[in-house]
Structure formats: C-alpha cells, structure tokens
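Would you mind giving me a polypeptide sequence along with per-residue structure tokens?
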Amino acid sequence: MIVLAAKQDLTQITPYEAADPFLCRILCIANMYGNYSFADCWVQKQQEIDKPTAYLSKMDGVITLFAYENANFDELCIFLKMIGASCVMCHASCAGQLHMMPAKKGTIMKWNGSLAERPNIADSPNLQQVYDILQACNNETFRVPAFEPFYLDMSHRIRHGGATVLGQAKDGKWIACAMTVAETEHTAIIGSVAVLPAYQRQGIGRAVVQSLLYHCMEKHQQTIYVYCNSEKNALFYRSIGFTDSGTWAEIEQI
C-alpha cells in the first residue's frame, strides 16, 4: 500500500536519515517543500503491521526512492509508471529489483575524514556568481541546469536551511564554489563543486570542499555524502577523506 506521507511517517525517517543519502534527500524535500503542490512524498507500508517498507519523493519530475529489502517492488514499479517522472534516483540495487535499466550509475561516497583546523575559505557568493562558475565548467559529465529553476530551488533551500554555498574569490573575481544540495539536522549531501578552468589543479577545489565540510560540522552535520559520476571524481573525494558507500543509479525510461 502506497499513500501520501503524513507528518508521523516523515518523523520516522529522522533517526535513520544519516544512514542513507536517499533518505536525507527525501526528508530535505519534505522539510523544504512540504506545503507546496509541486512536491510530494509517499510511503509504502505493509498493511498487516503498518510498517514502512519504502519512501518516495517527487519534485519537478524527479523521483527519489529509498526501499528496504522487504519492499513490494512490483507495486513500486507500477506506482512509478503511474505517477510519471523524468527520472528516478535510487540505489543501484533498487533499480535491479525494479527490473529497470539505469541510464547512469556512479559511486556514493561518505566522508570519514577529519579537519585539524578551520580552513580559511568561508565566503558566500550570490547564486548568479555561482552559476557563472558552473557554466564555465559545463561539459559532458558536468551538466548545468537552466538558471531559473536552479536559482529558485537553491535560493529557497538556502533561506530555509536546506543548502549551503561557499566559494573563493581572487583579484575581485569568483573562481570556485562548492555547495550542498540537501541538508537535514545531522546529514548533508554535497552537490556541485567547480573551479574555473584557468585556476584548476592548484588545490583550490580541495580547499573549498574542506571549507564546506567544516561549515557542515559546525552545524553538527557529521554525516556528509557526495554522488560521484566518474572515477576521476571519486579519486578526488577519496583524497579528501571520503570512502565508497554504495552505488547510485538514475533511471530515465520509466
């Protein structure tokens, strides 16, 4: 049985959201957009004992799915096709259980490092400045969304404690940025990290990520994840102290 998630259902996620990045994404969407018609959250339950077996959220056509091993995947598959979506984000194991072929896969990484001292970078560029940096780094593996939905979503999340943006400037110009795209009380997910091409390979990306990590820890977000879409990307995060924590999948043909 899949029903719209009530407040009590979402409260049950809170003790466990640090253990899984997809639960963090779902809870963040519920916290940020719970009163808006374009964002929905559902829960699948075992009717006999009323116990959750899966959680889903949908926003702007993107579904985030977290499913326990005892979830009813046949029902989930029918439900996903019924509600319609541009893509589904989930664990690769879920994609297999749904018998759906992922269009993309990558490594989920979790930060297990430590920072001995506070990094020096703590500036906050505005979202137009961030977007300019992202656009300068746009390529086949780093796709930048359209500005308007990016701005509306990120500005809302930042205002309501669901995201953070930090950057580095040099000679009056913003040259690097790093941001979280989902935050809860104890967990954060790093999204885009970008350095202008002329300033790459100088340790700036590493420094701005470390600044973001420190900022998260100051807010008691001890669990920090990142989705890597290439081995090069994963190597960078491993050098900072992240370790492999599973595989993500993006399903497009639903």
Summary: The two ends are 20 Å apart (CA to CA). The chain has a mean pLDDT of 92. Helices lie at 7-11, 21-33, 73-83, 92-97, 127-136, 147-159, 204-218, 231-240.
